[in-house]
């Protein structure tokens, strides 16, 4: 009887551990940053080379409406982030503080912007935090689960809108690359096309992807990508972003 109970206890503990492990893996999958999802999928296609990328977080801070409140917030951030180089600029339309730092080891550039402007006879303050890289390194994914999240918790009151964007090139100079890669990208991101623009050397797609949860419109637009080629035999460049593209292309 003792052996049976002991075996049953071991079995129950084993099942409990399995549930915990499965639950944790689900949480990790669901909370994986969008930029990491984008990179992971793009890297699966050997024809694509990832170049510049950017992640921008933005929020309207309703607690800053006066110059004194603005100055207080900037002072607090200067104390918290002494490694950033700060610059102030005030004019008739409002106040602006911008901070910048470059990490030689990681190759990442971080910027913080606080801008208060007059909109419809009222002061509105925007807080923007952006991270940029010129190529994707192995340590970048860890940065977004640690440092980036800590910055977001420090800088924003609520949940900011986050825009992730990647530029790159396609190692394929066939005539049909625009059409073929458009379909490939829609499949890659499990996306449904909402609207598009097609020209001889350029294609732009706005779509809804089941992989991302931050829609911009009632049509649930949360993914954009564009492809541009310089002509026959020339390399094709791409840019992809969620929920929209923030790079010029």
The helix/strand class is alpha+beta
Domain count: the total is 1
Give the CATH class: Alpha Beta
How many strand segments?
A: 10
CATH superfamily label:
YwmB-like
> Order of strands across the biggest sheet?
2-3-4-5-1-6-10-9-8-7
CATH fold name, please? Answer: TBP-like
CATH-level-2 architecture: 2-Layer Sandwich
The rough form would be described as globular
Assembly annotation: single chain
Q: How would you describe what is shown here?
A:
This protein is an alpha+beta fold and 249 residues long. It has one domain: YwmB-like (TBP-like, 2-Layer Sandwich), CATH 3.30.2030. The chain is built from six helices and ten strands, in the order ααβαββββααβαββββ. The protein has helices at 2-30, 34-43, 67-80, 140-145, 147-155, 177-188, and strands spanning 48-60, 85-91, 94-103, 108-119, 122-133, 161-170, 191-198, 202-209, 223-229, 236-242. A hairpin with a 6-residue loop joins strand 9 and strand 10. The N and C termini lie far apart (73 Å). The model is unreliable at 1-30 (pLDDT under 50).
Short description:
The protein is of the alpha+beta class and 249 residues long. 32% of the residues lie in helices and 38% in strands.
Structural topology:
Blueprint: H1 2-30, H2 34-43, E1 48-60, H3 67-80, E2 85-91, E3 94-103, E4 108-119, E5 122-133, H4 140-145, H5 147-155, E6 161-170, H6 177-188, E7 191-198, E8 202-209, E9 223-229, E10 236-242
């Amino acid at each position: 009887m003792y052996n049976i109970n002991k075996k049953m206890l071991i079995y129950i503990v084993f099942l409990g551990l399995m549930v915990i492990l499965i639950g944790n893996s689900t949480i990790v999958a669901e909370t994986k940053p969008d930029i990491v999802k984008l990179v992971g999928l793009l890297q699966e296609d050997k024809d694509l080379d990832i170049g510049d990328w950017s992640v921008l977080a933005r929020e309207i801070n309703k607690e800053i409406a006066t110059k004194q409140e603005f100055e207080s917030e900037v002072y607090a951030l200067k104390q918290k982030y002494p490694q950033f180089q700060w610059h102030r600029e005030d004019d008739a339309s409002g106040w602006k503080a911008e901070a910048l730092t470059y990490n030689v080891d990681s190759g990442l550039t971080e910027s913080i912007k606080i801008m208060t402007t007059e909109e419809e006879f009222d002061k509105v303050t925007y807080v923007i935090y952006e991270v940029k890289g010129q190529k994707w390194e192995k340590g970048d994914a860890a940065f977004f689960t640690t440092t980036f999240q800590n910055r977001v918790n420090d800088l924003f009151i609520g949940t900011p809108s986050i825009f992730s964007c990647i530029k790159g090139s396609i190692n394929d100079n066939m005539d049909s690359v625009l059409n073929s890669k458009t379909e490939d990208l829609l499949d890659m991101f499990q996306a449904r096309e909402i609207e598009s623009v097609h020209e001889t050397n350029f294609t732009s797609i706005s779509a809804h992807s089941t992989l991302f949860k931050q829609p911009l419109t009632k049509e649930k637009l949360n993914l954009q990508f564009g492809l541009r080629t310089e002509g026959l035999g020339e390399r094709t460049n791409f840019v992809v972003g969620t929920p929209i593209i923030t790079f010029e292309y």
